[in-house]
């Protein structure tokens, strides 16, 4: 009888250890183990940093999206559309305006630039861009215009290009670069418009505005740039804000409301106003604008209600973590989940058996 009790105690001890170990291991989540949140991009000019989001939905190649039409690349059915212009970006084109933006293409992220408006009312124009720090693995997949007897001058080196455009009335010029932009990049553009451009005077028109366009495609934002100063287009974020603490329940029950709380600190050297976005599996579910002095911090929070079982990724600024929706909720990442009813019951049984053995 004594040996049976000892064997039972030993068995229960092993089971208890395995159960506690399994539940703790399965429920432990740190904010650094989840996948990163979406990439951020920016255009920097002097002290100004403009956060931008790519246009596009990833279902067209860069060339298809730009839709540059010349007699050499169109069929007879659309021969009337051989305007040496971009037909795919007309919704963003404006008279006497040069635009640039990032585009999420089927062949990866692209940098697109378009001058003036097709079928508009401008008198043409001229521009020269000196572009450096281009990814080595990339290429100019659209050169508008680059055809026999065209005015545009293209000078490409390994990681730089100098492009000089001159376009006639109601036409566009431009270009699109694809390749290497899905990794980190920091491209510089030195602009020269109108009389500063290499091909100035070929046509009478002038560019009066230079803009960067930010997505999403159905709700774009346009930001005017200084036409005489260089810009950087970078994969870095504008914000100096960072998450110093992220508090959340790592396990919740279906339909249970849970709070996600983030402590945000401005690690920059100046006052910044920044939209703090809470994302769920990459989609923004809440946004709160905060303004912090250098070194200052604050706490922002939002409530989530998740009905479907599964694992979800939450993101706030530069931090992300995972929440599991299961049968039991109320777990907290600041505690060791699982060391509860099961472990306590096993401990009680062990204590009873030990007491019986000693008596």
* Largest sheet data: 7 strands, antiparallel
The separation of the N and C termini measures 13 Å
Task: Give the number of helices.
Answer: 3
Sheet with most strands: strand arrangement: 2-1-15-12-7-10-9
Mean pLDDT: 81
Describe this structure in words.
It is built from 3 helices and 23 strands. By secondary structure, the chain is mostly beta strands. It folds into 3 domains: 1-24 and 342-359, no CATH class; 29-38 and 242-335, Sandwich (Immunoglobulin-like); 41-234, no CATH class. The strands form 5 sheets. A 7-stranded antiparallel sheet has the order 2-1-15-12-7-10-9, with no helix packed on it. A 6-stranded mixed sheet has the order 8-11-6-5-13-14. The two termini are 13 Å apart. This is CARDB domain-containing protein. InterPro entries: CARDB, Ig-like_fold.
Notable characteristics:
single chain, 359 residues, mainly beta, Immunoglobulin-like, 3 domains, seven-stranded antiparallel beta sheet, six-stranded mixed beta sheet, 3 helices, 41% strand, elongated
């Amino acid at each position: 009888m004594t040996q049976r009790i000892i064997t039972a105690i030993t068995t229960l001890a092993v089971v208890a250890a395995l159960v506690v170990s399994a539940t703790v291991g399965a429920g432990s989540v740190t904010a650094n183990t989840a996948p990163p949140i979406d990439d951020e991009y920016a255009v920097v000019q002097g002290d100004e940093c403009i956060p931008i989001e790519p246009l596009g939905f990833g279902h067209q190649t860069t060339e298809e999206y730009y839709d540059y039409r010349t007699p050499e690349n169109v069929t007879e059915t659309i021969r009337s559309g051989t305007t040496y212009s971009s037909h795919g970006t007309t919704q963003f084109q404006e008279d006497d305006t040069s635009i640039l933006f990032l585009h999420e293409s089927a062949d990866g992220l692209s940098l697109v630039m378009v001058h003036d408006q097709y079928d508009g009312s401008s008198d043409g124009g001229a521009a020269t861009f000196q572009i450096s720090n281009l990814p080595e693995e990339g290429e100019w997949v659209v050169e508008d215009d680059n055809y026999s007897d065209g005015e545009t001058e293209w000078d490409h080196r390994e990681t730089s290009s100098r492009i000089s455009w001159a376009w006639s009335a109601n036409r566009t010029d431009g270009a699109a670069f694809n390749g290497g932009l899905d990794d980190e990049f920091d491209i510089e553009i030195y602009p020269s418009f109108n009389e500063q451009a290499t091909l100035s005077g070929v046509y009478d028109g002038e560019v009066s505005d230079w803009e960067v366009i930010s997505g999403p495609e159905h709700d774009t934002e346009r930001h005017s740039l200084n036409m005489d100063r260089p810009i950087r287009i970078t994969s870095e974020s504008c914000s100096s804000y960072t998450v110093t603490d992220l508090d959340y329940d790592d396990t919740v029950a279906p339909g249970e409301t849970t709070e996600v709380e983030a402590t945000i600190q401005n690690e920059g050297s100046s006052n910044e106003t920044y939209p703090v976005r809470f994302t769920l599996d990459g989609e923004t579910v809440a946004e709160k604008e905060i303004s912090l002095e250098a070194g200052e911090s604050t706490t922002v929070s939002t409530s989530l209600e998740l009905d479907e079982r599964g694992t979800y990724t939450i993101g706030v600024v530069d931090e992300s973590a995972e929440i599991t929706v299961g049968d039991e909720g109320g777990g907290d990442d600041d505690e060791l989940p699982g060391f509860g009813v099961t472990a306590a019951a096993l401990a009680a049984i062990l204590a009873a058996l030990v007491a019986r053995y000693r008596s």
